[in-house]
Design goal:
This protein is mostly helical. It contains ten helices and no strands. The chain has one domain (58-258): MetI-like fold (Orthogonal Bundle), CATH 1.10.3720.10. The longest helix is centred in the last third of the chain and has 39 residues, at 170-208. The protein is globular.
């Protein structure tokens, strides 16, 4: 309980300090309030977005509708990237020969920014949910898959010999030995992939969607509403923070369930 209270205290102090610096910058810097709105102006814009939507926007949807659409795309894309990435990584990690054939292609595609695929995807299938979901999938897939392959390769061979002595089949060994042993490294990749997927969700929605937080960022910019723009940006950051907290709680739960211990 004390640990949680200390964490909440640090979070509160961190956010309060950031708000104070923001307000101080507005007071000290000689910048038009339409370009650098104060925290109070951003709060008022946030309330407006939550209640009636962005005034002058091409959409009358409220902020909660945009958040719901973004979360739907994110959950589908992120879960698909992690499930496919972990599954393929577990299989390739156990076969050096198969990974040797796949790895060159992966290393060519992986450095390409996911957003670079967006024009091609939009031309191919149009705008909507699917382009953003595909971008999210690409953003998370390679990180998770390659981290899983690396984790499987580093498993102590003693574990595999013991599983063989107990007569476990290949699939039983994969589920009961390989995956739990590789999970700590996989969990780290899930954190990284989550942040990357959330970033590229917003990027994808700026071009390929008519709703969502990324679309709302562009809409606020087009309406010359810096206060609403900052309100949306802060909302994006807060949701990303909460998602990271959730994935951390999931990791700790799985570690505790499998007796792997919890990193402090």
């Amino acid at each position: 309980m004390k640990k949680h209270l200390k964490t909440l205290k640090r979070v509160a102090i961190s956010f309060a300090s950031a708000l104070a610096l923001w307000q101080l910058a507005c007071m000290v810097l000689d910048v038009n309030e339409n370009l650098l709105p104060s925290p109070l102006q951003a709060w008022r814009a946030f309330v407006e977005l939550c209640t009636v939507g962005l005034q002058g926007s091409t959409s009358d949807a409220t902020l909660f509708v945009h958040i719901g659409d973004s979360m739907w795309r994110f959950v589908v894309g992120y879960l698909a990237s992690t499930v496919v990435g972990v599954s393929l990584g577990l299989l390739l990690g156990q076969s050096q020969r198969a990974f040797g054939y796949v790895n060159p292609v992966v290393q060519v595609i992986r450095p390409i920014a996911p957003i670079a695929w967006l024009p091609f995807i939009v031309l191919l299938i149009g705008i909507g949910d699917l382009p953003a979901i595909i971008i999210i999938f690409i953003a998370g897939f390679f990180t998770v898959m390659l981290s899983t392959v690396s984790a499987v390769k580093k498993i102590d061979k003693v574990y595999l010999k013991v599983s063989a002595n107990f007569g476990l089949s290949r699939w039983q060994r994969l589920i009961k030995v390989v995956f739990p042993a590789a999970f700590p490294s996989i969990a780290s990749s899930l954190h990284i992939a989550l942040g990357t997927c959330w970033i590229f969700l917003v990027s994808g929605e700026m071009v390929g969607s008519q709703t969502g937080l990324g679309f709302l960022v562009m809409d606020a910019k087009n309406c010359l509403r810096a206060d609403a723009l900052i309100a949306v940006i802060i909302t994006i950051g807060v949701i990303g923070f909460l998602l990271d907290v959730l994935i951390s709680a999931f990791e700790h739960k799985v570690r505790d369930l499998w007796g792997l211990g919890i990193n402090e």
